[in-house]
Amino acid sequence: xxxxxxxxxxxxxxxxxxxxxxxxxxxxxxxxxxxxxxxxxxxxxxxxxxxxxxxxxxxxxxxxxxxxxxxxxxxxxxxxxxxxxxxxxxxxxxxxxxxxxxxxxxxxxxxxxxxxxxx
Length: 119
Description:
It is built from six helices and no strands. The two termini are 20 Å apart. The protein is mostly helical. Helix content is 69%, strand content 0%.
């Protein structure tokens, strides 16, 4: 599974739809391996240039990159910022990782519905 996920996220497999690649990127940060994270980061950086901050896909990609870096302080800061900005229902009393993954799930449910992004 991890190998297939890594190939799909990096574009070396048959999966090309952006929404699917973003979903797999989310899975890669939830269930990280050294190989997956090191392959994921450069590929996601290509999305950054296509989707500015403040857009659903742009925020999602940037958040996945923060999660991939595995820096707990930065994850908390970005989670707080995104929660303050416009995401709802992220319990502030929960542990940072749980809050971040809950927020990631909220973001992912919105990404496939964005106009112009094939699912």
